[in-house]
Amino acid sequence: YTAWDVTSPAYIMENPNGTFLCIPTMFLSWTGVALDKKTPLLRSNQAVNREAQRLLALFGVHTDLPVLSYAGLEQEYFLIDHNFNFARPDIQIAGRSLFGARPAKGQEFSDQYFGVIPQRVLSCMMEVERELYKLGVPVRTRHNEAAPSQYEIAPLYEPSNLAVDHNHIIMSTLRNVAKRYGLKCLLHEKPFSGVNGSGKHVNYSLGNSELGSLFDPGETPHANAKFLVFCAAMIRAVHKFGGLLRATVASASNDHRLGAHEAPPAIMSIFLGDQLTEVFEAFRAGRAEDAANGRKGRIMNVGVDTLPPLPTDPGDRNRTSPVAFTGNRFEFRAVGSGQSAAGSITALNVMMADSLGFAADWLERETAAGADFNVAVESFITHVMEEHSAVIFNGDGYSEVWHQEARRRGLPDLRTTPDAIPEITSPQVVEIYERAGVLTRDELRARQEIYLEQYCKTVRTEANLVIRMARTIIFPAAMRYQGELAATAAHMRDIGLEIRTTTLEEVTSGLRRLQDATARLETSLAACGETGEGLEAARRYCDEVLPLMLEVRGHADTLETLVADDLWALPNYQEILFGK
Hints:
17 helices, Creatine Kinase, Chain A, domain 2, seven-stranded mixed sheet
């Protein structure tokens, strides 16, 4: 069954053969089981509204409008020449390069990030924006990103349901318009090794047009009890259900990105900044009165007469944090560029509904026992800091020190999809989803099975590609070069000249290692195919197949640096990433 989602406007899509009406739609089984991502997202908005309204009432705040989750979805992507897509079976089928030696230059100069947008790319971007304008998608930002040939587009903040729909339209439009300019849009999370991957940062907040953002501290954040309670609820939510949040971004493609090159680690933590951290630490130390005397925003004197003094935001962003407070919202940075943000936003809503309900219960219980309301608020924030402050971390999330510290704090480090996906059906997750009326145990179990199946199929497809490309493209190219080297060496010896055969020996050794590793990968892949597509199979693909794929790639990439360029059949990273 389908049901029209009237909260998301219909739109008219044009193509050369005519126009047709697109209606945002929910998909349900005849028993009412949700078969999509939209239905649980809408249910979760109802759940978070219910608990937020209840908590706001305790503060004497009443609103006639529902409290919704809002999202600003930043979309990162790569644009490469479409000819390279046809010349690279791995990019064409898997959406990423399974082979490729690092070029002499990557992104270390930051010249892509701070440079001018190439003319062909800019023309493509502007047409994308025109098409999105016609479809009602309010695009606000376009710019270069850090990696060569990487870019970003971002719309205005919108209600989360609409933001997700518009993000899907953005991804589709990027792909379609790129073709008109001879470009290929790559939305894979890690299309190229050694440079930044692509994400879809979710700027998350709660509120409505009457209240604004409930994560906005206003002019005096230390005295804003309502803000502190909602912020404390977020801290509790991420600490209690960090495993769920990690599971919502788990996929074979996103595993390559998390924890490397501008992506946050798999450990879910919160960055609050020095100012907010001081406030919450004051509560934990029993010095709530000191919370009003924290550091203020400073003024930046730029030393130029024609520029005015610039006020600075005391809550700077930590690029290594999965969840960061950024002034009036929390930025969840772990969603992959090719993923739908609906699952993560649904989880955030459910987690927040649970924490807001817990906060309301706490305040009601304390005030019913005769406590002053402000004292009750202080006791709640103190409780959150005592029980859940382990999730707050303002340092470098990439450092090994943090990984050791996170283990000491008891934070889950779910590095791979097979580690993370079981969190979806953990007892506490099932309990909060069912209590919120968002998804049942069966609906959650179905999603877990589907995600595991997708993981197994993705890794299996890529492994098959690795085997085929190694045998039919890379091995023959290296063999031809080996033959040329051997013939040259023999000719030089015939005329009485000595020649160093180091390169010949390296190519011969590389060929042997490539052949052996490919054979082991094929054997391992055949064995995994006998275990189905459940959790056991996913673990085998992760622990056995992926390492062998990397081994084959390592030998192939070494050969790429040895074989003559005119004999290497695959376009290399330099050609793909720097060919504008």
